[in-house]
From TrEMBL:
The active site is at E86. GO terms for cellular component: cytosol. Its EC number is 3.4.19.3. This is Pyroglutamyl-peptidase I. InterPro entries: Peptidase_C15, Peptidase_C15-like, Peptidase_C15-like_sf, PGPEP1_Glu_AS.
């Protein structure tokens, strides 16, 4: 039987929490699923509950199940007005309570891990490469994913994947973008990320070797 040579990409969004009774991140990921990433990419999408313990269980299990070339996490930020590419995840400072009124006992992701881990994907390069004239969405870059479930998920994933993860923050629906606009933005961004990941100059953060 002919072997499947497709690349595998896993994309997650988050479930409801707080005022976000409909989480724009999961809606955007579902829109991406409708659009797909082309015939050469096998796309798998998952909704993650806003719970620290669920993240620690689900992220490793999804990595083991799919062994993706790239793991993309999408979250909502009530303060965001652009689609934001996060450069790094942080290990410490997790005091915000999740949907089960829980936070990590030691307020960190990985005991003894580096304070910060960066994606091997240069987010500035990705942002600069997005020139799709049909993409009526502003893309920006950030170094602070917020020290809540988004940041916690990103660091956990970066640690497991040795940097082959990315995190994208989206604004709430209608503020200012529609679900369709967010889905198209994700499709374009991830396509560019895959191209950057394959580039021989893709860099690995020196902290990954620790």
């Amino acid at each position: 039987m002919e072997r499947n040579s497709n690349r595998t990409v896993v994309v997650t969004g988050f479930g409801p929490f707080g005022e976000h009774t409909t989480n724009a991140s999961w809606v955007a990921v579902q829109e991406l699923q409708k659009l797909g990433l082309g015939e050469e990419v096998d796309l798998y999408v998952y909704e993650i509950p806003v719970e620290y313990e669920k993240v620690l269980d689900l992220i490793p299990s999804l990595w083991k199940r799919h062994n993706p070339q790239l793991f993309i996490h999408v979250g909502v930020s009530g303060m965001a007005t652009t689609v934001t590419l996060e450069k790094c995840g942080h290990n410490q400072g997790y005091v915000g309570l999740d949907n089960r009124c829980h936070c990590p006992d030691n307020h960190c992701c990985v005991q003894g891990g580096p304070d910060c881990l960066e994606s091997v994907i240069d987010m500035d390069v990705v942002c600069n490469k997005i020139t799709d004239p049909q993409l009526d969405v502003i893309i920006s870059v950030s170094q602070d994913a917020g020290r809540y479930l988004c940041d916690f998920t990103y660091y956990t994933s970066l640690h497991l994947s040795r940097g082959k993860s990315a995190f994208i923050h989206v604004p709430p629906l209608g503020k200012p973008y529609t679900a369709e606009q967010l889905g198209r933005a994700l499709q374009t961004i991830i396509g560019v990320m895959l191209g950057v990941l394959e580039h021989p100059n893709a860099k690995m953060n020196c902290q990954m070797a620790l």
